[in-house]
Amino acid sequence: MKNWLRVGIRVQIALATALLVVGLAVLMSFVIGKRSGTDLQEQIGLGVSDIALQMADELDRTMWTHRGEVSVLSTLSTIRELEDTHEISNIINRLRRELPIFTWIGILDHEGTVVAATGDLLVGANISQRPVFQYGKNGQFIGDVHDAKLLAEKFPLYNGEPIQFVDIAVPLINDDEELTGVFATHLSWEWADTVRRTLFSGQGIHRNVDIFVIAENGTVLLGEDDASAGTSLNIDALQEAQRGHIGWKINTWPDGNEYLTGYAPADGHLDYPGLNWSILVRQHVEEALAPVHNLRRDILIWGLMLAVVFSVIAWWGAGFFVGPIGQIANSIEAMKRGEIDQLPDVHGAREINILSKSLQALLAKLTEKDVALGEMEHIAHHDKLTGLGNRLALDAYFEHAIARANREETEVAILMMDLDDFKPINDKYGHGAGDDVLREVAKRLRRCVRGGDLVARQGGDEMVIVCNIERDGATEATMLAERILHEILMPFITGGSRVSIQMSIGISLYPAHGTNPEELLEQADTALYAAKARGKNGYVMYSETDMISHDSSSRA
Fold first, then answer.
1. What confidence tier does 315 reach under pLDDT thresholds 50, 70, 90?
2. Catalytic residue flag (residue 461)
3. Residues 421 and 548 in one domain
4. Could you tell me which residues are beta bridge partners of residue 499?
5. Does some domain include residue 399?
6. pLDDT of 102-148, one tens digit each?
7. Which of 88, 285, 436, 458 has a 20 to 30 A CA-CA distance from 407?
8. Which one is catalytic: 267, 383, 461, 525?
9. Does residue 403 share a domain with residue 279?
10. What range defines the domain where residue 225 resides?
11. How many other C-beta atoms lie within 10 A of the C-beta of residue 332?
12. Could you tell me which residue, 297 or 273, shows the higher pLDDT?
């Protein structure tokens, strides 16, 4: 037995050490991972938000720059007067060669006919119904991304899809302030994709980010692949960007995955008001936090390895003090079986000797205090004068009674009792006689209830009974009230004098009248006052709609 105990303790210490080390490793993994995850998440969130802002700024600057170029060219006399179409063609074709972003440049006369164009595309065609003419003749016009309706077959596909354009158009006004035509351009939307793929390719923790350009109506103009373009998007980050905010959120996207999503509005540059685009930059949450997961894994692996090492060391070291502790444990078991009365002296290390002496003294003190605690608990929960339960006992019993009622689907009755005309007894016979009467009332109340019911004194001559009853609670409670009133009517003998006294009772039921102790006591108290108001020696059952009163004459 001794050897078994020694081995058992050593194994327990070794296992406890291993569990402690593993627990610390898990805790460190959780704390460090959570802190690192929060910091890294914040860092990546700010990063993707910054990328979104840079992308928005780059788009707006590009549109502002090319809008300015178109505006400057429209002021050239050769172009404004529309006299030398050959020279105009040379100018715009050179512009097209220098700035390939201008996919098509056309000069329209005041009727909307193309008189000069890059590559002579659409020359002679009337495009007066197109937005570049309809809006461009009235002032500077910048159109949102759209498909090339008239030029769709003139340009090669981009990534397998028809090329898309952004329009810039300005009116041409001659020296006589007359409209001579419209300077119209189509900017290839390829430049936005180029900006996304080169300028924001992503490095370090921002690798593999996806950048989206969203139109004012929520349509994806530029996405992570061609399939997403033209679809509708509605997430919190987009709504924030549309409200002009810059920041980041964790959003669930239509593919069902969670992404760290940075957002920023493309709200123009200088005097260019912008097209109300929104820029979203996202990175998959799991991918973004992969370094944190790796750190947690490494901490756990090292923790397991250290747990093995330290458990072996702990198992070896435990052998030095297991023997004396085992002897102490055996002695304690012998005391529990009654074989010995006190612990023997156990010798070993200084701490073992102190432990042995301390346990001997502690057990002696515990034995003394056990009796004292029992007495203190009785005093704490009982009224000193009557021996009935007090408010502490009442609160504790309520919890027990309600739990039992819920478990057994029964009810709880609360009887609030107060002696009628008790003050004259004190005045006539003295407080000692009054105390005798209260003690006798307490005895009679105990005789009226079952062993598991509680009789408590609230204070003065007010007492409470709490008891579990069957489903027909009202009938059983009133029968108990009848029995109590009958007992109290019997005369009291105090100081050689014969004293008669009566009692009023208020009754409430759980759960019919309430669900918590304070509410039930208050309702019973209300019923008690109703009983006093309607005559002595009677009881009243509390009801939310009516108070039913009984008195001794009706019971007779």
1. low
2. yes
3. yes
4. 492
5. yes
6. 888 999 998 999 999 988 888 888 988 888 898 888 988 888 777 66
7. 458
8. 461
9. no
10. 197-288
11. 13
12. 273
Residue written as token pair 């103009």: 221
Q: What is the CATH number of the domain that holds 247?
A: 3.30.450.20
pLDDT above 60 (res 555):
no
In a domain, 448, yes or no: yes
- Contact at 8 Å (CB) between 456 and 394? yes
Rounded to the nearest angstrom, the gap between the alpha carbon of residue 11 and the centroid of all alpha carbons in its chain is 42
Residues 534 and 396 in one domain: yes
- Strand pairing category for 179-188 and 210-214: unpaired
Q: Is 500 helix (H, G, I), strand (E, B) or coil?
A: coil
Dist. CA 539–CA 530, nearest whole Å: 8
16 located within any domain: no
CB neighbours of 174 closer than 8 A, spacing ≥ 6? 80, 81, 180
Count the residues in the chain. Answer: 556
Residue 218 has pLDDT above 60, yes or no: yes
State residue 521's pLDDT score. Answer: 92
Are the C-beta atoms of residues 446 and 455 closer than 8 Å to each other?
yes
What mean pLDDT do residues 406-423 have?
89
| pLDDT for position 551 | 44
C-alpha to C-alpha distance for 411 and 415, rounded to whole angstroms: 13
Cα–Cα distance, 390 to 171 (Å, whole number): 96
The rounded Cα 379 to chain-centroid distance in angstroms is: 45
SS3 content of the chain, % helix, strand, coil (to 5): 50, 25, 25
279 and 428 share a domain? no
Q: What predicted TM-score, i.e. pTM, was given to this entire model?
A: 0.48
List, as one string, the DSSP characters of 103-130: EEEEEEETTSBEEEEGGGTTTT-B-TTS
Residue position matching structure tokens 């109703």? 530
DSSP string of 173-200, one letter each residue: E-TTS-EEEEEEEEEETHHHHHIIIIIT
Span 146-195, pLDDT tens digits: 766 666 555 554 444 556 678 889 999 988 888 999 999 988 777 777 77
Of 506, 504, 508, 505, whose CA–CA distance to 519 is shortest?
Answer: 508
Distance CA 261, CA 256 (A): 14
CB 235 within 8 A of CB 261: yes
Per the domain annotation, does 154 fall within a domain? no
pLDDT at 466: 93
Confidence (pLDDT) at 375? 54
- What confidence score (pLDDT) does residue 387 get? 82
Nearest of 457, 476, 477 to residue 417 by alpha carbon: 457
Looking at the structure, do residues 414 and 549 belong to the same domain, yes or no?
yes
Strand, helix or coil for residue 166: strand
Confidence class for position 556, pLDDT limits 50, 70, 90: very low
Q: Which of 75-79, 201-205, 299-303, 447-451 has the lowest mean pLDDT?
A: 201-205
Tally of structural domains, the chain: 2
CA pair distance 43, 205, nearest whole angstrom: 9
Of 231, 256, 288, the residue that ends a domain is 288
Last residue of a domain, which of 288, 317, 352?
Answer: 288
421 shares its domain with 547: yes
| Integer Cα distance of 107 and 137 in angstroms | 12
Q: What is the CATH number of the domain that holds 532?
A: 3.30.70.270
